[in-house]
Amino acid sequence: MRYLLIILSILFVTLTSANADVSVGIGISAPGVRVGINLPAYPRLVRIPGYPVFYDPNVSGNYFFYDGLYWVFYDDNWYASSWYNGPWELVDNFDVPVFILRIPVRYYHRPPAYFHGWRADAPPRWGEHWGHDWEQRRNGWDHWDRKSAPSPAPLPRYQQNYKGEHYPKAVEQQRSIQTQHYRYQPSEPVAKQIYQRDRDQRGPRQGDERGNRREDRGRQDR
Description:
The chain is built from seven helices and eight strands. The protein is α+β, with helices and mostly antiparallel strands. The protein has one domain (about 20-220). Helix 5 (about 170-180) packs across helix 6. The chain is globular and about 40 Å long. The termini are far apart.
């Protein structure tokens, strides 16, 4: 009887795990700030109605996609990445795009404790939480004409081909793959900065290097 109970327990755990939501493990590592997201594969992104933002209903974390970047809210900070599993870059609270700030509370699958009691269909009360200075500098972030919302950025579905051990962890490799498959150019200032930093870390493209070598040879021949 005892062995039967053990077998039934194992079967129950197996079935429960198979039907459970995808788990997201988030942690901070040093030096620098990194957010570790453990997604087994490319997320199932669904658009939030009326917003140019996507989320994954099965990820048990505050995980979104907007303006060509993935966004994670963790430990009272926002992080962004051009790839679904990072590496992640810390974004200053003053620079977070308004459409990320406007995401309704109900789409935060791991809301912080101070969200308690806030309306599920309204955005978090960032000004109340982050203070007067933030509210003054970001005045009007929660006022907008829903009819004028921009179209969402196309999803970088090419990343579906990269998971597990095949996921590119180096920024240089990520940018090289992205340049081949994703032509979208972000509109948000902070997104543009992250894209540019990625390019700077990647260095000049192979064609640029050949052009530079030809230019150097031309100078030597003069």
